[in-house]
């Protein structure tokens, strides 16, 4: 009698199939876009997902300046940083940050949804956010993904 094998196959660095993906941020809400991009970076849409391995895709986000913030978040949402000196706490609203560097707004949202460890830092390196429709990764032949089709 031939027995079936029900072994769980765990992905590793050598067996992972990484792809390049383009996501257009035009018309998407910031948090909803960030959560889906974080899941793509993590590899959770793949059947070979392994929690402790970087098995996600490389993501290129274009049109970061066209992202939506609902409600009063544009004026009320604040980003706090510290210079390291006494009294060096600085605060920016989402509106000011979107005017100065809209790519940073998207990067902060995605980074906050990744794990806070070495793996999360490695996954964040697979993210490229661009202002405008042009990006410098045409040589990788990225495929375009519609976030509305993902669950």
UniProtKB/TrEMBL annotation:
InterPro entries: Ribosomal_uL13, Ribosomal_uL13_bac-type, Ribosomal_uL13_sf. GO terms for biological process: negative regulation of translation; translation. Keywords: Ribonucleoprotein, Ribosomal protein. GO terms for cellular component: cytosolic large ribosomal subunit. The keyword Ribosomal protein applies. The keyword NADP does not apply. GO terms for molecular function: mRNA binding; structural constituent of ribosome. Part of the 50S ribosomal subunit. Belongs to the universal ribosomal protein uL13 family. This protein is one of the early assembly proteins of the 50S ribosomal subunit, although it is not seen to bind rRNA by itself. It is important during the early stages of 50S assembly. This is Large ribosomal subunit protein uL13. The gene is rplM.
